[in-house]
């Protein structure tokens, strides 16, 4: 459409520019032509934390934050959570279509064939303290995979790239389970491919001396749904890290370790662990109002609430609330859900939260389920990282295939000192400003 343009007048020069509008955006590079003179670098955009910046085009996940919509490759998350297995969704995210029966059967076999890890990785894992945080163990061991698979650097070889994708998806549960067993001082349990992806993960976590682990089907399905809900979420912090690090052609294991590091932050994937700590601190319903007051005074954050994109209820939180009741049928009710429900009820009727459009996000209820299933809070973010690895890999692969891809290298607004002459040590006086490292 011809009128898909902006006309910009630079009041400094009275010059006008016609800038094309591209899919609801303007290309930042189109602003570079706006100069005050030949020596002027030209205009850039300034957008700390990328509040209003699209970093890429993507066909994988669609979010509508105002309507609370989440779709993977066009399919509503509610339908995928109800009808699919996690590996079925993994195929969808990576390939763009739901798999046929044969494709899914072959995919299941291929993933389950690569669940073993090199025995030396166990020695690596044994080097951690017994109380090492599982995310630190996982970040380190995922990065270590790049030393076992040097062919992973051959990013131009499509078949080789696909092999690494399969390896990482397959081995994440094994590494995560071994980190869990190491923390408890229990022997590692080898993968059992017959069980399938999620039940095998439970097997490697919880098998004791029985000849074959039998997963509770309700808990296995609940974990499968939680994996589906956490699989991808467009350009969140950890996916952005995956794309940025991957843009340097780092191998997928080192790149995924960077994404895991981003996910570990309490403002991102680490929030589910913080929600449980917050609920434990509140303790009882009668102490909720005092906590809410602290939040409104800016002294605390209501962990598990708020989202950069969702300014409505996170559709995943709604599904997780339903899953919680199914899990409690098996495990017994985790009464922290009653505190969480009361906290939600109070928050959603309070002007502070309404004005800021703060609703429960994916992390608000997930930890309560994980705890009821027997996981400790420090495991919760690992449970986020296992499925999100599929999303990271799908986004990484899309980035590698993007004809516009270049190494990620943002610019800056320089606010430092102008040119100044060196001062010899003997002539240096006391600084006229407070130092940050002193
Ligand atoms: C995930 O991006 C993704 O898609 C992430 C994720 C995914 O699947 O990958 O969905 C997973 O990370 C979910 C978010 C988990 N994090 C938490 O639950 C931590 C608590 N939430 C907040 O820290 C916060 O809401 C963020 C980090 C999630 C979003 O932060 P924004 O978008 O930068 O919003 P903001 O900090 O600018 O907040 C806007 C206002 C501020 O108040 P004012 O300064 O305007 O007065 O809302 C307030 C904030 O103080 N606010 C909160 C709050 N979140 C925002 N106040 C109290 N409690 C909160 N949780």
Description:
This protein has 438 residues and is mainly alpha-helical. It has 3 domains: 5-46, no CATH class; 112-262 and 380-398, Citrate Synthase, domain 1; 271-373, Cytochrome p450-Terp, domain 2 (Orthogonal Bundle), CATH 1.10.230.10. 49% of the residues lie in helices and 6% in strands. The chain contains 17 helices and 6 strands. The strands form 2 sheets. It has a 3-stranded antiparallel sheet, with no helix packed on it. The protein has a 3-stranded antiparallel sheet with strand order 4-5-6. β1 (5-10) and β2 (15-22) form a beta hairpin. α13 (315-331) packs parallel to α16 (362-373). The longest helix is centred in the middle third of the chain and has 27 residues, at 158-184. It is globular, with a radius of gyration of 25 Å. The termini are far apart. 39% of the residues are buried. The model has no long low-confidence stretch (mean pLDDT 95). The site of s-citryldethia Coenzyme A has 21 residues, from α16.
